[in-house]
């Protein structure tokens, strides 16, 4: 579980830091070629790249999540039993007093 949380925290930090670094780099002329752009183009390009960077981090995080072994995480048996009992109680043939539910039937 600690590995999952660590991946989540690292991805969250990159989703904050990467767009801010891109915007800072463009606005302070740290990236090559950004000095030749008009202010309007500079704003559009930096904003677009910041959004793309967040999406790249999200895709990377999803890929990491999909590579997690499926059999690694087992649900708690007592929780599953309680959930099944709860569903059975809700779906049993107990007559409902709610008029909206009667109308749907």
Automatic annotation (TrEMBL):
<dbReference type="GO" id="GO:0070072">
    <property type="term" value="P:vacuolar proton-transporting V-type ATPase complex assembly"/>
</dbReference>
<dbReference type="GO" id="GO:0012507">
    <property type="term" value="C:ER to Golgi transport vesicle membrane"/>
</dbReference>
<protein>
    <recommendedName>
        <fullName>Vacuolar ATPase assembly integral membrane protein VMA21 homolog</fullName>
    </recommendedName>
</protein>
<comment type="similarity">
    <text>Belongs to the VMA21 family.</text>
</comment>
<dbReference type="InterPro" id="IPR019013">
    <property type="entry name" value="Vma21"/>
</dbReference>
<keyword id="KW-1133">Transmembrane helix</keyword>
<keyword id="KW-0256">Endoplasmic reticulum</keyword>
<feature type="transmembrane region" description="Helical">
    <location>
        <begin position="46"/>
        <end position="66"/>
    </location>
</feature>
<keyword id="KW-0472">Membrane</keyword>
<dbReference type="Pfam" id="PF09446">
    <property type="entry name" value="VMA21"/>
</dbReference>
<keyword id="KW-0968">Cytoplasmic vesicle</keyword>
<comment type="function">
    <text>Required for the assembly of the V0 complex of the vacuolar ATPase (V-ATPase) in the endoplasmic reticulum.</text>
</comment>
<dbReference type="GO" id="GO:0033116">
    <property type="term" value="C:endoplasmic reticulum-Golgi intermediate compartment membrane"/>
</dbReference>
<keyword id="KW-0812">Transmembrane</keyword>
<dbReference type="GO" id="GO:0005789">
    <property type="term" value="C:endoplasmic reticulum membrane"/>
</dbReference>
<feature type="transmembrane region" description="Helical">
    <location>
        <begin position="7"/>
        <end position="26"/>
    </location>
</feature>
């Amino acid at each position: 579980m600690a590995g999952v949380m660590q991946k989540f925290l690292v991805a969250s930090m990159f989703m904050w830091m990467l767009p801010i670094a891109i915007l800072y780099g463009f606005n302070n002329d740290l990236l090559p070629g950004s000095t030749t752009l008009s202010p309007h183009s500079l704003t559009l390009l930096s904003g677009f790249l910041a959004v793309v960077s967040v999406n790249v981090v999200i895709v990377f995080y999803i890929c990491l999540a999909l590579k997690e072994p499926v059999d690694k995480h087992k649900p708690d048996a007592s929780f599953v039993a309680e959930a099944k009992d709860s569903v059975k109680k809700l779906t049993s043939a107990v007559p409902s007093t709610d008029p909206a539910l009667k109308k749907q039937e």
